[in-house]
């Protein structure tokens, strides 16, 4: 789908389309790279691109904030390193859903995330859920950590920034996320469903067009949408 988008866009030209059997050197000469591969392959691809001074858009999931910080340190330490734009989710609706969750987070002490993906997804929790939980953690500030009672029990999910995340892997699903918040006598649910991969098209094109002018390491399409969320890794 990414290849088709690039080929169809008047202002973009496909330099090379790599597979798992390609030599990363095929990237050389490109103005921008797009990594949508596999969590086990992504680190080497990103390191190659930044080392070669090629700005890269990373859609591949499975990146921890620790690894992103390491990449940010490398980029900061090398003037000629290519910028890295990590995009946990290319869907505008998903990005807005995460932003709305961050906005509401200080007002609800109980917050949990339930994400569902197709059965072929190899990593969990999803990159989107990790990003959403991190935004919630940051947004809470003085409100302190989310209440996550009995979180030591396995069925209570995996804590990300103190937020329990529950992952479902189901046939018949593309990608879904619900952020459920509990307060005094009420709950608020922020829900997003990806019905088709076409949801990613607008975000992929936006990221590819903006990456060449990016500097350092940027996390989240929200940074390009001027939503005012934390996105630039200092
Ligand atoms: N940010 C976002 O909005 C989205 C992110 N994703 C993420 O993108 C990633 C890919 O997802 P999906 O497209 O469903 O996965 P697929 O398994 O369908 O496709 C992965 C592709 O990556 C290629 N590939 C694997 N390893 C390498 C490598 N070392 N070098 C070059 N190419 C490689 C594979 O090629 P080959 O055929 O040779 O194996 C294959 O074409 C996942 O991490 C997923 O979570 C997915 C959707 C949206
Ligand atoms: O594997 C997928 O399909 C997706 N992965 C990304 C993630 O981990 O959040 C983005 C989207 O949810 C689709």
Strand content: 15-25%
Number of strands: 9
Q: Which ions, cofactors or small ligands are bound in this entry? A: NADPH dihydro-nicotinamide-adenine-dinucleotide phosphate, ligand LZUJQKHR
What is the name of the CATH architecture of the largest domain?
Answer: 3-Layer(aba) Sandwich
CATH level-1 class of the largest domain: Alpha Beta
Q: Give the domain tally.
A: 2
At the fold tier of CATH, the topology name of the largest domain is: Rossmann fold
- H/E element order: HEHEHEHEHEEEEHE
Global mean pLDDT = 95
Helix content: 25-40%
Query: Which regions contain 5 or more consecutive residues with pLDDT less than 50?
Result: none
Shape field: globular
Q: Please state the CA-atom Rg, rounded to the nearest Å.
A: 18 Å
For the record, what is the CATH homologous superfamily label of the largest domain? NAD(P)-binding Rossmann-like Domain
Walk across the major sheet and give the strand order.
5-6-4-7-8
Number of alpha- plus pi-helical segments? 6
Biggest β-sheet: count, sense, barrel?
5 strands, mixed
Structural class: alpha/beta
Distance between the termini: 33 Å
Describe the protein.
The chain is globular, with a radius of gyration of 18 Å. It is built from six helices and nine strands. A hairpin with a 2-residue loop joins strand 7 and strand 8 (186-194). Helix content is 30%, strand content 21%. Residues 18-22, 36-39, 41, 59-61, 87-90, 200 line the site of NADPH dihydro-nicotinamide-adenine-dinucleotide phosphate (NDP).
